[in-house]
Amino acid sequence: xxxxxxxxxxxxxxxxxxxxxxxxxxxxxxxxxxxxxxxxxxxxxxxxxxxxxxxxxxxxxxxxxxxxxxxxxxxxxxxxxxxxxxxxxxxxxxxxxxxxxxxxxxxxxxxxxxxxxxxxxxxxxxxxxxxxxxxxxxxxxxxxxxxxxxxxxxxxxxxxxxxxxxxxxxxxxxxxxxxxxxxxxxxxxxxxxxxxxxxxxxxxxxxxxxxxxxxxxxxxxxxxxxxxxxxxxxxxxxxxxxxxxxxxxxxxxxxxxxxxxxxxxxxxxxxxxxxxxxxxxxxxxxxxxxxxxxxxxxxxxxxxxxxxxxxxxxxxxxxxxxxxxxxxxxxxxxxxxxxx
Amino acid sequence: xxxxxxxxxxxxxxxxxxxxxxxxxxxxxxxxxxxxxxxxxxxxxxxxxxxxxxxxxxxxxxxxxxxxxxxxxxxxxxxxxxxxxxxxxxxxxxxxxxxxxxxxxxxxxxxxxxxxxxxxxxxxxxxxxxxxxxxxxxxxxxxxxxxxxxxxxxxxxxxxxxxxxxxxxxxxxxxxxxxxxxxxxxxxxxxxxxxxxxxxxxxxxxxxxxxxxxxxxxxxxxxxxxxxxxxxxxxxxxxxxxxxxxxxxxxxxxxxxxxxxxxxxxxxxxxxxxxxxxxxxxxxxxxx
Lengths: 340, 288
What we know:
Chain A has 13 helices and 2 strands; from the N terminus they run αααααααααβαβααα. Chain A is globular and about 60 Å long. By secondary structure, chain A is mostly helical. Chain A starts with a helix and ends in an 11-residue tail after the last helix. In chain A, helix 2 runs antiparallel to helix 6 and helix 9 packs across helix 13. The longest helix of chain A is centred in the first third of the chain and has 25 residues, at 2-26. By secondary structure, chain B is of the alpha+beta class. Chain B has helices spanning 2-23, 95-98, 144-151, 259-270, and strands spanning 29-40, 43-44, 58-59, 65-82, 87-90, 100-103, 111-118, 120-129, 158-159, 164-165, 168-174, 179-185, 204-216, 222-228, 281-287. Chain B is globular and about 60 Å long. Chains A and B meet through helix 4 and helix 10 of A and helix 3 and helix 4 of B.
C-alpha cells in the first residue's frame, strides 16, 4: 500500500515537473508597451485599458495589418488602403477593394486613434477592436469572412509563434486578431511635427506659417480643435453630396435627423499627405477645400450653424489661403510617415 | 466500496427514470411548425420585377401603388407560452438553432419547424423580428450556420458596416412609374442595454395570441402566422408616403432614409414595443 502511494506520488511529481517545464518554455516575456502620451492630448479611448498594447501583440497586429489573405482573392490587406507614407491613406477619392470595387467613402487617415472617441466618417464604431471585421466582410473591400481568414493563416508557423507570444498559446481566434490589430493601431501616435516643435520651443514658424496659424485660430479652430485638430463632432458642412443611396452620413447610425449627411470633423495632422479630401474625396487638394469654403457651401436644413449664421461661407483672401496651407504643412510628422 | 455501491444505485435509478419516460405513449416533446404567410391584407404576395403582370400589387393609405420583387425578414428569440403562463424558450441563445430567415422567394423557408417542444398546451407565441443587440454581432464562430445562411449571395441579410444582420429586406417598385423602393432595417446600437451609447435598436419583440390553444404531445401542431406587408406603409404607428431623392426625408431607397426614417418602417412591421406588440403579424389558425 505504502509503495503504491509513493509510486503515485512520484508519478504525479513527474507530471507536475513536466508541465512546469512546458509552461516555462511557453512563458514568453510580453511586456506592455508604454505609449508616449503627447502633452495636451485628450483622454485615451475608454476601451484602451481593456486591450493595452504589448510587445508581441503590436508585432502581430502590424503583421496582420499587411496580410493580403484577409481578402477573398488575397490581393488586399489593411495596408493596401492605409499606407503609412500617406498617414495611412491611399490618395484615392474612394477606397478600392478587391477586383477594383469602389467603396462608399474616402480612406480615413489612421493616427492618434487611441485618443478618439469615434471611428469612421460617421462614428459608427466606438471601439477599435470592433472595426477590423467591417472591411473583412464588406463586398467593396475584402469580401471575406473571419473564419476564411483564419483558415488561410492558421498553419503558418510565424503566426503560430506570434499568437503564442502575444496571447500565451498558439490559438488563432477572431478576438485575438481584432485585439492585436487594435493594439498596433493604438501605437500610431503622431505628435512630432514642426507645429509640435514650435509648441515645445525647439523650432519656430516662418512668417507665413505664423500668419496661417493666426488665421487658423480665428476661422478654423472652433471645429479643428484640440491637439488632435478635431473636436470629434459631426457636422454638415455643406460639402458636395455623395449621391450613393447608402450614404446618409452620421444619420444612418444615430437616427437623429440633424445628423443627416454629417461627418466627423477630420484631423488636420499630416493633412498635406492625405489628399484627396472630403468624405468621398470631393476635393483634389487643400486649395480646393479653402476655395470652396470661401465661395460658399451648399445649404441644408441641418447645415452647421457656423456656416448657416455666416452666409454659408468662410471668407478667405488668397493670402490667407496661402498662409493657411503653409501652416497646415507644419502639421506633417515625417517620422510618423516613415521618413526618418 | 461504499462509494461504488452509491454509484451503482444511482445508475440503476437513472436507468429506471429513462425507461419510464421512453415507455410513455404520450411523448415528452414534439414538433411545432410555424407557417408564415406573407400578404398584402388577405392576398398572399407574389413577387415580381418592375414590369411584372403577376406580382401582387397593393395600394397604401397614402395612395401609392406598390409591389415587391424581394421580401425577407429574420425571426429569432422564439418563445411559446403555456396556458398557465409559463414561457418555454426555444433555443433563444443560439441563432443556429433558434433563428431563421423567412424568404418569400424560397418556399421551404416559409415553414420553420421547432423541434423537441415540451408537451403542453400553449396559448401564445412570442418571437423577435430581427435579432437582439447582444446577439447581433456577426459572430461567425458562435453561429456559423446562421451566419452562412444570412450572408449567402442570394440572401444578403448582412449589414456589414454596422457589423450586424439586416432584419428586413424589401425590394420593390412604387407609383405608376415603378420607381425603385428598397427598405432595409437593422440595428445600429453601440453599448449595452438599456443605456445604449448611440444608435437605433431595430429589434422588435412580437406577442401573438393563438386562435386556439396548440396542444403539443402526441400531435405536432402547426401555427399559421400572417405577416401583412400592407402595414409597411400603412401601419398602426405610421402612415408613410414614399419619396425618392437625396434629402433627409426621402425614404424609398435604403439607408439614405436615415435611421430616423428607418424606425418608422420598423415600428410598422414589428410594432413600437408599447401600444403595439404585434406589428404586421397575426395568428390566423392553429392546426392541432
